[in-house]
Design goal:
Number of strands: 3
Largest sheet: 3 strands, antiparallel
Number of helices: 4
Radius of gyration: 20 Å
Strand content: 15-25%
Structural class: alpha+beta
Helix content: 40-55%
Order of helices and strands: HEEEHHH
Length: 130
């Protein structure tokens, strides 16, 4: 496996730390709202990403677009943590079938999971499937 299992688990740990930090910084779930204000004397409508307590996280008056904010809201910390847990459970389930030495499917699934992290310095090109 050339460290593939360890690589994927380490990246999931990294992702969890980032999502946990974001979750601790603001109350989930995040939501995107439309608000009205003024740009100088001109009335404007803008998008604001708010946490569950109503605190502003970001808005499209900065360099973020409404599409950026929609994407961020869609991948808020609770969802990211759920995806991490699902991937960990998938690995555990595959382990229950005998692990990487007994099935090619285990190796293929891990290679797919690892591809998301292809830009990481520890990623090995021989893991790439496409």
């Amino acid at each position: 496996m050339n460290g593939l299992v360890e690589f994927v688990k380490a990246r999931l740990d990294d992702d969890e730390l980032v999502a946990q930090a974001a979750r601790l910084a603001s109350a989930a779930p995040w939501r995107l709202t439309s608000e009205h204000g003024f740009d100088g004397a001109e009335p404007v409508e803008y998008k604001v990403l708010r946490d569950n307590d109503g605190l502003s996280i970001a808005d499209d008056r900065t360099n973020l677009t409404a599409e950026d904010l929609t994407h961020i809201a869609h991948h808020e910390p609770a969802r990211a943590l759920a995806e991490i847990e699902a991937k960990r459970r998938l690995i555990i389930e595959l382990d229950s079938y005998g692990g990487p030495e007994t099935t090619d499917a285990y190796y293929v699934v891990l290679r797919h999971l690892a591809t998301v992290y292809a830009d990481h310095p520890d990623y090995q090109d021989d893991w790439r499937l496409w």
